[in-house]
Amino acid sequence: MTQQERQNEPFALTRYTPDQLKDALRKMHLIRKFETAAEDSYMRGLIHGTMHLSIGQECSAVGSCMPLAASDQITSTHRGHGHCVAKGADISRMFAEFFGKETGYCKGRGGSMHIADIAKGNLGANGIVAGGIPIAVGAALSSKRLKTGKVVLCFFGDGANNEGAFHESLNMASVWDLPVVFVCENNKYGMSTSVERSTPVKNIADRAAAYAIPGVAVDGNDFNAITEAVDRAVVRARAGQGPSLIESLTYRWRGHSKSDRNRYRTKEEINIWMSRDPIDRFRSFLVEHAVLTADEASTIESKAQKEIEDAIAFAKDSPDPQVSDIGRDVYTARPQ
Q1: pTM beyond 0.90, yes or no
Q2: pLDDT tens for residues 15-67?
Q3: Which CATH architecture is the domain 15-313 placed in?
Q4: Coil, strand or helix at 300
Q5: Domain range summary for the chain, segments of one domain joined by +
Q6: 180 near 137, Cβ under 8 Å?
Q7: Would you tell me the crossing angle of helices 58-65 and 18-43 to the nearest 10 degrees?
Q8: Fewer CB near the last or first residue (10 Å), C or N of the chain?
Q9: Sign of CA dihedral 14, 20, 22, 23
């Protein structure tokens, strides 16, 4: 292969090994099947409360986490199951957390919106819109002060870009050149409000200019596009050159949450985005470039399905928390 041909190769093929790319496809299938199984469990009454599904956004999560080292950290959102999987979470412990079991990541106390996996660098999902952004800045400040070399990847949705926490955090991260990468997953709607109605700039990434940091909008359903953009930002952050803002353009196939009746979107719009299925696109890309065969791709999907089934069985068989432990892991100041 000539140097020119190598330069024209898709980024993913030059940056990652075939095994890494196959694992990325596996994680996308795991996210899709996890979300589908979680939705089914909710409908059957096995899971209580609500949840925010990321079906249709799998590539954004996996592609964004690909450039990270195992020691790097992320902060997540109320729509954070995919981020958790992308950072290497144990599916069994995730389902146990959903089912409120003692074997869950947070011993069943966190549920859908508050899963954390500190050992894998996931500092936690957050039910507060924009709540994870200042946490990411704090973690990045810690990394810089302690010289750990860690980069922090901060996920948030388009609705968060109009919160004060977003602007204050980007300002502080820029002033202090912190090793943090801000990834806005723009799925077009903050609950039922379209981004066109809530945000005056054409691209949320344009807001990076106000803080003198790089900003770029990319197709979050295109593995090459999102992982290349995040890779550049991670390299920049690790080199001590400060933060970046990446807008990952994607779409959620389901409503905002389980109570959303989806009346603000047309079926035509949803169907258009479903026809751009990010998993199908990535699978076709890998087959086209001979990273794997169609049969191997099908095997990866089948194994992901088996992993989900085993995880649900584990969660169902896991012990419930004891009432006597209700005060365990709850911390408060003792009255004087």
Answers
A1: yes
A2: 999 999 999 999 999 999 999 999 999 999 888 888 999 999 999 999 999 99
A3: 3-Layer(aba) Sandwich (3.40)
A4: helix
A5: 15-313
A6: yes
A7: 140
A8: C
A9: negative
